[in-house]
Amino acid sequence: MADDTILVVDDEIDLVRGLERTIAMEFDCRVLTAENGRQALDIIATNSVDVVLADVLMPEMDGLTLLTHIKQQDPAVTVVIMTAYGTIEKAVEAIKKGAYDLIQKPLDEERLFHLLRKGLERNRLVRENARLTEEIGRKKTLGSMVGRSRTMRAVFEKIQMLAQSDATVFIRGETGTGKELAARAIHNLSRRGRRQLVTVNCPALPETILESELFGYRKGAFTHAADHHTGMFDQANGSTIFLDEIGDLGLTVQTKLLRVLQDKEIRPLGADRSHRVDARILAATNQDLEEKIRQGLFREDLFYRLNVATLVMPSLDRIREDIPLLADHFLDLVAREQEKPPKILAPEVLNYLMERKWPGNTRQLENLIRGWYAVVPEDRITTHHLTAETGPAGCPAEAMDLDRPYQFLKEQAIEAFTREYLTRLLGRTGGNVSAAAQLSGMKRQSLQKIVKRYDIDVRRLRS
């Protein structure tokens, strides 16, 4: 392959020139040369080298010492040692130090070509395995984040960079853009990743309860405080705490959070003194905090304390080229979750997904596909399964099985409607069950029962 590179290292200049010509005639590759070990190491430092053919006896740095330095610099490089002294001891020492093989001078051309060919093959396999291992590792640490667009690649690079520090990170973006996924990825990739991420959905609790949940309380701190309670910041000690939708925090909790950011200390309710806590803070919002600051609803000093490093999650409209990849990801995800055969999208449906508007972003796309799995019996989703409201058809005429009893089809349609209603409702409230209950006119407990009955994953509907 033309991208392959072989480096020949020997202090015999005539031999080096002869090998350069011979190898170039036999292999479609780049051939580099060096007259000593130090020159070879400089070349490897600035070039992608696949195979090194090096003499064992050279002034200043012999071939075995060069071999050791090469393996330290780039373990993937394949090294073949040349020697005029083909003793078993030299061969054993070379192999122990990581040489691929040994060839004796004067060189047998056929054996040389065989070794170089095998060396190049080995190098391709080693580098491909390393690439796949890195890709698998990236997928594991980035969780369900998917994308190949330039915008998403930049997001992934920034996540990996942010994970290398303990800086507070402010994640901004519209509802449904994957802010919580980004927070989990930053945590998983960080040195704190072996410990559990503590997630706080700020709008889910009234301010008085949220304060005690965040900072904890001591027995007797208030009525019904029968025992000590460990707060979420203490639970996140040595780990990371993610404050989702921080724009909904009340001013009292904002003040206490500011103290945590400034002093790295918390004071549980009812406690006599503060104590230090080592928790990295990640925060997210879909709100315009600058406007809330102008309205006196958000502390400016807290905003600047949070805004040490910012990650902006793009809307789905900005990464339309990733829609086919995301659609495939969600199709596979739902199939595995529900233990059903995977469905495929007809080309015209994929075109429809590419062209339509996505006010709910990636979460809206996921919910749409989940809806299709609930109501489409076929393994292929076509335009017949789209409604006028650009959602899954509850029971389209083309998909209706008239051999089934009326009662069955009716229950199927009700189930499809309920699932779609719940996913849209909870999607609109960012997974906040209390807010969803208020919008729906139901009691919170009643809504929770329905959510549980239909096995709706509320966590996936959060930003």
From TrEMBL:
<dbReference type="InterPro" id="IPR002197">
    <property type="entry name" value="HTH_Fis"/>
</dbReference>
<keyword id="KW-0067">ATP-binding</keyword>
<dbReference type="Pfam" id="PF25601">
    <property type="entry name" value="AAA_lid_14"/>
</dbReference>
<dbReference type="InterPro" id="IPR002078">
    <property type="entry name" value="Sigma_54_int"/>
</dbReference>
<dbReference type="InterPro" id="IPR001789">
    <property type="entry name" value="Sig_transdc_resp-reg_receiver"/>
</dbReference>
<feature type="domain" description="Sigma-54 factor interaction">
    <location>
        <begin position="145"/>
        <end position="374"/>
    </location>
</feature>
<feature type="domain" description="Response regulatory">
    <location>
        <begin position="5"/>
        <end position="120"/>
    </location>
</feature>
<keyword id="KW-0805">Transcription regulation</keyword>
<dbReference type="Pfam" id="PF00072">
    <property type="entry name" value="Response_reg"/>
</dbReference>
<keyword id="KW-0597">Phosphoprotein</keyword>
<feature type="modified residue" description="4-aspartylphosphate">
    <location>
        <position position="55"/>
    </location>
</feature>
<protein>
    <submittedName>
        <fullName>Fis family transcriptional regulator</fullName>
    </submittedName>
</protein>
<keyword id="KW-0804">Transcription</keyword>
<dbReference type="GO" id="GO:0000160">
    <property type="term" value="P:phosphorelay signal transduction system"/>
</dbReference>
<dbReference type="Pfam" id="PF00158">
    <property type="entry name" value="Sigma54_activat"/>
</dbReference>
<keyword id="KW-0547">Nucleotide-binding</keyword>
<dbReference type="InterPro" id="IPR003593">
    <property type="entry name" value="AAA+_ATPase"/>
</dbReference>
<dbReference type="GO" id="GO:0005524">
    <property type="term" value="F:ATP binding"/>
</dbReference>
<dbReference type="InterPro" id="IPR009057">
    <property type="entry name" value="Homeodomain-like_sf"/>
</dbReference>
<dbReference type="Pfam" id="PF02954">
    <property type="entry name" value="HTH_8"/>
</dbReference>
<dbReference type="InterPro" id="IPR027417">
    <property type="entry name" value="P-loop_NTPase"/>
</dbReference>
<dbReference type="GO" id="GO:0006355">
    <property type="term" value="P:regulation of DNA-templated transcription"/>
</dbReference>
<dbReference type="InterPro" id="IPR058031">
    <property type="entry name" value="AAA_lid_NorR"/>
</dbReference>
<dbReference type="GO" id="GO:0043565">
    <property type="term" value="F:sequence-specific DNA binding"/>
</dbReference>
<dbReference type="InterPro" id="IPR011006">
    <property type="entry name" value="CheY-like_superfamily"/>
</dbReference>
